[in-house]
From TrEMBL:
Its EC number is 2.7.13.3. This is histidine kinase. The chain crosses the membrane at residues 6-27, 39-66, 86-104. It is found in: Membrane. Gene3D superfamilies: 1.10.287.130, Backbone structure of the membrane domain of e. Coli histidine kinase receptor kdpd (1.20.120.620), Histidine kinase-like ATPase, C-terminal domain (3.30.565.10). It comes from Mesonia maritima.
């Protein structure tokens, strides 16, 4: 149904009837009044598909009156002398009204069906999210609770080495839990459209080395960093950049085999900061690459947990910085995420990058 005001629907539906009637009147010498009835009925049917019930009923009534007055003999009068024409007029009027009512009911049924399908999909989506969240939040919480209970109950009998291991587990689980909560908050900010970058000078290598150090506590997978430029000071939003890299690194850690390695490369050219995050894992199924940045999308072959919001947040934050992100599989296995961000650099660096 076209989203127009009631007044606009009235005007358009009546105008269509008047245009059709005028054309038929001008060519009334070439075809009889019965042909005119079919053409007017066609116009009413089109209006029934496009508009709501009341404007259609008005146009159906108007078309019947116009057909009677201008086309059914005797013309220019509402009197019908021929019984056959009288029956045909009554049938036309009834068919036009029934057509309008039935078409309206069909549209309502289709709309109701779509709403039910949408509701079903929404319920399925929320179930998926809740199941994912329960897994993603329960795991670090269980680790924190178990480690804390052990420290409280066996504090005297535990060696310092064991205590330190438990403290490390609590710290790692807390960081992971915090990242999940941050992702949910970031997603709500993206949905609300309140994401506004605050540009400041950011030392790109320092930011990346900091993230590598933090992730080094969580994983044994090596994370390598290569920077083409000796110095790389760029004006951007540090929080946005960290969120982008955190999610890409975490995605690589969670979805690659044990012996995989992660590589981060940065370079600067033509006032653009290029960041490539790659791995030597299994890569992505080619038919699913176009969907990986969709919210809550998880690979069909994925056997691990995950909420499916990490990569959608990455794309949202990249676009908030007026940048672009592209994913492609490597020829030798694995994949790479290529990010391009507009870069404002310090004047003393311009000569170096020229």
């Amino acid at each position: 149904m076209i989203k127009l005001s009631k007044l606009a629907q009235f005007v358009i539906s009546i105008t269509l009837v008047l245009i059709c009637s005028t054309i038929c009147y001008l060519f009334s010498d070439f075809f009889g009044h019965r042909t005119v009835a079919l053409l007017l009925l066609l116009v009413v049917s089109i209006s029934a598909i496009l508009f709501e019930i009341i404007p259609v009923l008005i146009s159906a009534t108007l078309s019947a009156l116009i057909w009677n007055f201008f086309f059914i003999p005797p013309r220019y009068t509402f009197r019908i002398d021929n019984t056959e024409d009288l029956l045909m007029f009554l049938m036309y009027f009834m068919i036009a009204l029934i057509n309008a009512v039935l078409t309206n009911k069909i549209k309502k049924l289709n709309l109701k069906k779509k709403e039910e399908e949408k509701k079903t999909k929404t319920i399925q989506l929320y179930n998926t999210i809740l199941n994912s969240l329960s897994h993603e939040l329960r795991t670090p919480l269980a680790t924190i609770i178990a480690s804390t209970d052990t420290l409280q109950e066996k504090k005297e009998s535990l060696s310092e080495n064991i205590k330190n291991l438990l403290y490390d587990e609590i710290a790692i689980a807390s960081i992971r839990l915090n990242k999940q909560i941050e992702n949910l908050l970031n997603m709500s900010r993206l949905e609300a459209g309140t994401i506004k970058p605050k540009l400041d000078w950011v030392d790109i290598p320092e930011t990346i080395y900091k993230l590598i150090y933090e992730f080094g506590k969580e994983t044994k997978k090596p994370i390598h960093y290569y920077n083409e430029n000796e110095t790389l000071l760029v004006k951007t939003d540090r929080g946005f950049l960290e969120t982008i890299l955190q999610n890409l690194i975490l995605n690589a850690i969670e979805h690659t085999p044990k012996n995989s390695a992660i590589t981060i490369e940065t370079s600067l050219a033509n006032n653009e900061l290029l960041i490539i995050v790659s791995d030597n894992g299994l890569g992505f199924p080619e038919e699913e690459i176009e969907f990986v940045f969709d919210k809550f999308y998880r690979l069909k072959s994925s056997s691990t947990g995950g909420t499916g919001i990490g990569l959608s947040i990455v794309k949202g934050f990249v676009e908030a910085l007026d940048g672009s992100i592209n994913l492609q599989n490597n020829e030798n296995g694995g994949c790479n995420f290529k990010i391009k961000l507009p870069a404002i650099i310090n004047s003393y660096q311009i000569e170096e990058y020229a």
